[in-house]
Amino acid sequence: MSKVLVLTSSALGAASVSNQLVQDAITQLVLQDPHLRVIARDLGGNPIPHLTIDSAKALRGAEPENAAQAVARALSDELITELTAADTLVIGAPMYNFGIASTLKTWFDYVLRAGVTFKYSESGPMGLLEGKRAIVIETRGGLYSEGPAQVLDSQEPHLRNLLSFIGITSVKFFRAEKLAFGPEARAKAINVASGQLAEVIQKEFLDAA
Ligand SMILES: Cc1cc2nc3c(=O)[nH]c(=O)nc-3n(C[C@H](O)[C@H](O)[C@H](O)COP(=O)(O)O)c2cc1C
């Protein structure tokens, strides 16, 4: 049975465009495979705590020395178990201040663990997760896929690096851009992204499974 891990990270709750598009993607995936198992983490609604002196230590190999370190290690183990069990990741990634939401970044802080999801080898760092694919849905008020603001995009390159660092290199990015360019541009961007998701999931994504 295929398993999908869904990560949403918008701070905007019901008004979130990325949450809505993630839902569209799940609907399409379930249409393709009614037995799909979906595990969801709403990182925006229920944020993981930011790193502290204790959690940073516990995630970097040291045996937990106190309750705070043990809690952080247990949470990291739980998140990594969810990640390793999934064949497919669906990530909702709003652009906040040119990058990803801090709630999503914190999830990566907990799952990028040396010796567990990546390792250092003689030829450099190596991702340890194999055979996983990701659908990443990016929402932006402005336009970054082309034009003068392209150089300001610290969202997509960061996500690509984080995923590939742990071995997830089969990644499809979908963008709803120009959401702040007025109601018409916003509606168009959402419709286009939703249509692209449906098309790719129906024609390509599951076929390649
Ligand atoms: C705190 C905050 C920061 C934002 N920063 C940017 C930005 O740097 N560039 C941009 O194009 N849009 C920016 N936006 C607009 C969001 O990308 C846009 O509202 C998008 O819909 C967010 O995704 P969501 O609706 O899923 O939360 C920002 C929005 C918020 C709330």
Question: How would you describe this structure to a colleague?
Answer:
The protein is an alpha/beta fold and 209 residues long. 40% of the residues lie in helices and 20% in strands. It has six helices and seven strands, in the order E-H-E-H-H-E-H-E-E-E-H-E-H. The strands form two sheets. The protein has a five-stranded parallel sheet, sandwiched between helices. The protein has a two-stranded antiparallel sheet with strand order 4-5. Helix 1 (17-32) runs parallel beside helix 6 (183-205). The chain is globular. The mean pLDDT is 95. The protein binds flavin mononucleotide. The site of flavin mononucleotide has 16 residues, from helix 1. Flavin mononucleotide is lined by residues 10, 12, 16-19, 94-98, 139-142, 179.
List the helices and strands and how they pair.
Layout: E1 3-8, H1 17-32, E2 37-42, H2 53-58, H3 67-85, E3 88-94, H4 102-111, E4 118-121, E5 124-127, E6 133-139, H5 156-165, E7 170-176, H6 183-205
Parallel strand pairs: 1-2, 1-3, 3-6, 6-7
Antiparallel strand pairs: 4-5
Helix pairs in contact: 1-6
The structure holds flavin mononucleotide.
Flavin mononucleotide is lined by residues 10, 12, 16-19, 94-98, 139-142, 179.
Please summarize what this structure is:
By secondary structure, the chain is an alpha/beta fold.
Overall mean pLDDT: 95
Structural class: alpha/beta
What spatial order of strands do you see in the largest sheet? Answer: 2-1-3-6-7
Question: Into which percent range does the helicity of residues fall?
Answer: 40-55%
Q: SSE string, helix = H, strand = E?
A: EHEHHEHEEEHEH
The number of helical segments is 6
The low-confidence parts are: none
Q: How big a fraction of the residues is strand?
A: 15-25%
Envelope shape: globular
Cα gyration radius (Å): 17 Å
N/C terminus separation: 12 Å
Bound molecules: flavin mononucleotide
Q: Largest sheet, described in full?
A: 5 strands, parallel
Number of DSSP E strands: 7
